[in-house]
Write a structure and sequence with these properties.
The chain is α/β, with parallel strands linked by helices. The protein is built from 13 helices and 14 strands. The protein starts with a helix and ends with a strand.
């Protein structure tokens, strides 16, 4: 076993480590900083999402991870093997341990489904018999064994992406990079592809890195997430923690696409116009029994409340969200109730 193969097989080390990694295109005043001093760790066996709007640097970051781009500064290791600063010839073996799937599938229309899945094995020098057997095994795994003789133009978008996944898995990679792999698919097909990526992770033990601009994808599949903006990772952590308590403006924008957050601007003004009581936003997180107790006691404190807005979602089996409450009663009683609520939950006045 080569030193590289041993490093990828070492289950004790992280799968991907970036330490102060930057990528600059061009020189002088026209230089573009695509990735700016990024440090993050992706653990073996997890599904890690990198999310950002167009131009955030996420696709450049994934090209650095698979060695298609070289780092300008910083260190980058994949499977314990240092990618940064290596020549293309030195990266060839490393890339066999990294699978890649794309938004536009990148299938060869002149080859059958079987031929597409066989292709990386042919490049790697596998015998015709062995690569056929392996390709059929992977097509069986993705549910397309009956399409082995078909050509890409005979497949739906979802089927094409499943072929792409089978091809990426053919060399038994330890790491699978999915760059906007569901962006060209309808919602139902997206759900099917994400379910397949979960199987890849759970059943085959492959570490999966998902690059996306869709927070629904993150909430459906990821264990942890990094939020990118202007080439930097501005926030990272457990998906539930980032969703339930986003710290940056860009993270709040992404979270707002999947869960009802506290009302602002026009919506807040409409709530104030339609409800004459005292309006507050109360953060809801899983397991906060004390909040329920305090709310149940409000009546005894001569304060009534109505739920006038908000929403609650479930992520990783745990509830999170925000409720907008209208409090009714004497102002002194309301002030006391709000003070007590603030001892058990994050509370904000609707302004």
């Amino acid at each position: 076993m080569s030193e590289l193969a041993q490093s990828f097989g070492d289950s004790t080390s992280p799968m991907v480590v970036l330490d102060g990694v930057s990528k600059v295109f061009g020189n002088g005043p026209k230089a573009v900083v695509a990735v700016d001093n990024v440090s993050l760790t992706i653990n073996r066996g997890e599904i890690f999402a990198i999310i950002g709007y167009s131009g955030a640097g996420k696709s450049t970051l994934v090209r650095l991870i698979n060695g298609l781009e070289t780092t300008t500064s910083g260190t980058l290791t994949v499977g314990g093997f240092e990618i940064s600063g290596k020549r293309d010839s030195e990266l060839r073996e490393a890339r066999t341990n990294i699978g890649m799937i794309f938004q536009q599938f990148n299938l060869m229309n002149s080859r059958t489904v079987l031929g597409n899945v066989e292709f990386p094995l042919k490049i790697a020098g596998w015998s015709k018999k062995d690569r056929r057997a392996r390709a059929l095994e992977m097509l069986e795994f993705v549910g397309l064994a009956d399409r082995a003789g078909h050509y890409p133009n005979q497949l739906s978008g979802g089927q094409k992406q499943r072929v792409g996944i089978a091809r990426a898995l053919a060399t038994s990679p330890a790491l699978l990079l999915a760059d906007e792999s569901t962006s060209a698919l309808d919602p139902e097909t997206t759900h099917e592809v994400l379910a397949l990526l979960k199987r890849v992770n759970r059943e085959l033990g492959v570490t999966v890195v998902v690059i996306t601009h869709e927070m629904d994808v993150v909430s459906s599949i990821a264990d942890r997430v990094a939020v990118m903006e202007s080439g930097r990772v501005v926030e990272q952590g457990n998906v539930y923690d980032v969703f339930s308590n986003p710290q940056t403006d860009v993270a709040k924008l992404f979270v707002a696409t999947t869960v009802k957050l506290a009302p602002t601007g026009k919506e807040a003004a409409e709530l104030r116009a339609n409800h004459k009581g005292y309006l507050i936003n109360v953060e809801i997180v899983e397991g906060n029994q004390e909040l329920g107790k305090v709310l149940s006691y409000l009546g005894a404190r001569n304060v009534r409340f109505n739920i006038v807005g908000g929403g609650i979602e479930t992520l990783q089996g745990k509830a999170y969200g925000t409720l907008t409450l209208e409090l009714l009663g004497e102002i002194t009683s309301i002030d006391a109730a709000v003070a007590e609520l603030k001892t058990v939950a994050r509370v904000q006045e609707v302004r």
